[in-house]
Every structure is written in C-alpha cells, then in structure tokens.
Design brief:
Length: 242
C-alpha cells in the first residue's frame, strides 16, 4: 500500500503499534506526539523510511493547523486519520474531582480529536475515499465509576464521530469510532497496576483489528463504532437512526 496515515499519540502504546502495522504494509505514517521522550524506541520499532515523527501539543489550535499544513505540504493528502492520543488522571469519585481536572480530560481527549478532525476534513473530503478512526473506549459507551471525567470525554468522542459521519455522508469520507476495552499499556499500568494490565489485551491485537478495518476486511459503517474487548470483537454497532 502507499497510503498517507496520520496517527496522534504515535510514539508508544496503541499509537506505536498502529504506526508499525501500517508502515510495515508500505504506507507512509506521520506520527504526532507531544514530546520526543519516546522517539528513540519508537524509531527502532518502526521502519524509518515509512515513519515520520512530528512533535506538537495538539490541544493547541495553532499547533494542529501547523502540523496538518506541514503534512499536506509533504504528502499532498491524508488517506487515514487516527485520533489516538489520550489522557486519564488517577481514579477518583465525582465529589473529589476538581473542575480544572474534569476540563483537562475534555481538553486532551475531546478537544484534540475535534481540532484534528476540523483541520483534516477539508483535505480528506475532497478525496474519492478517506477514513477517520477516532479512538474512544469502552468507557465511552458505558460509564465507569471513578473514571467519570474520562468516560464523559470519551462519550463525547463517540458523538463527535457520529456527527462528522452524518455531515459527510455525501462525500467519500467515512468516520468511525474505535472503543477498546482494557489494554496492556502504560496508562493502564498507572491506573490499575501491573498485575491488572498484564491480563488485558495487547495494543498489537487492537491495532490489528483497526488495520483490518482500514483494509476493508472488517466492515464498520460510517458513524458506527466497534468494541474490542478481551482480544475479541465484542460488537459492531451502526449509528443511531437519523
């Protein structure tokens, strides 16, 4: 393949697994990360000639515009956009969460997805075929206690994806939501501990399902979402009726 793939949160976890999956297949991956902290390991894991890393804080509208303009200048198009970057603070009950912390979850999980879509869509909808995969969570389909801020923001990602799909139904642009259950990632280890994380599905399994969706081997309707849990597809759901 020779597609142009843009992945946020691409230097570790699910983002890195996705970058490797697409790069190995021959696609060109533009990976965006907040810092260069994990770049050394990321570059060793992914074929360098197919992996272009860019640093930037995508909570900033100015930064998102600049990053996407740079990708357009270098590649001319975006075939697949994967909004994977995410954030979750330690577990806490509603009454223990500050308004600042609640808003931070929206800023890093929902605002970032909105901004990336906002500035990528004008490029992508001109193409005969293009795909946006927004990574939410099972917590974005049914709320999890003590993860209220994260759950609320990830529910927002699902709504955003449904709206984008409807707004672009007459174009070649599709938008779907990926809702993984627990994964063995650094975020999971920090929240629930190493023992719990070791019993979760791997980022590589989830990235493999997402790659099959991109290849057309697994069908998820535009505006729909897929739940991936316990190393299985737990369900594929169409968008709500208009």
């Amino acid at each position: 393949m020779n597609r142009i793939i843009v992945i946020t949160g691409a230097s570790r976890g699910l983002g890195l697994a996705l970058a490797k999956q697409f790069a190995v297949s021959g696609d060109t991956v533009f990976g965006i990360s907040r810092t260069r902290k994990y770049w050394s390991a990321a570059k060793k894991a992914v074929p360098a000639d197919h992996f272009k890393l860019l640093a930037g804080d995508i909570t900033s509208e100015k930064t998102v515009k600049a990053l996407l303009a740079e990708i357009k200048r270098r590649a001319g198009r975006i075939d697949i956009l994967i909004n994977n970057a995410g954030y979750c603070a330690p577990l806490a009950r509603v009454e223990k969460i500050s308004l600042k912390e609640f808003r931070e979850h929206f800023r890093q999980n929902l605002d970032t997805t909105f901004l990336m879509c906002k500035y990528a869509i004008p490029v992508m909808k001109k193409q005969a075929r293009a795909l946006i995969m927004n990574v939410s969570s099972m917590a974005g389909t049914r709320a999890v206690p003590r993860l209220v801020s994260y759950s609320a923001a990830k529910f927002g990602v699902l709504a955003l994806s449904q709206a984008i799909a409807k707004e672009n139904s007459e174009t070649g642009l599709r938008c779907i939501t990926i809702c993984p259950g627990g994964m063995n990632t650094e975020m999971r280890r920090e929240l629930f501990g190493m023992e719990d994380a070791m019993h979760q599905q791997t980022p590589e399994f989830v990235s493999g399902i997402m790659f099959q969706i991109a290849e057309g081997k697994i069908s998820v309707p535009s505006g729909g979402h897929i739940i991936i849990r316990h190393s299985k597809i737990a369900g594929i759901f169409p968008p709500p009726a208009a």
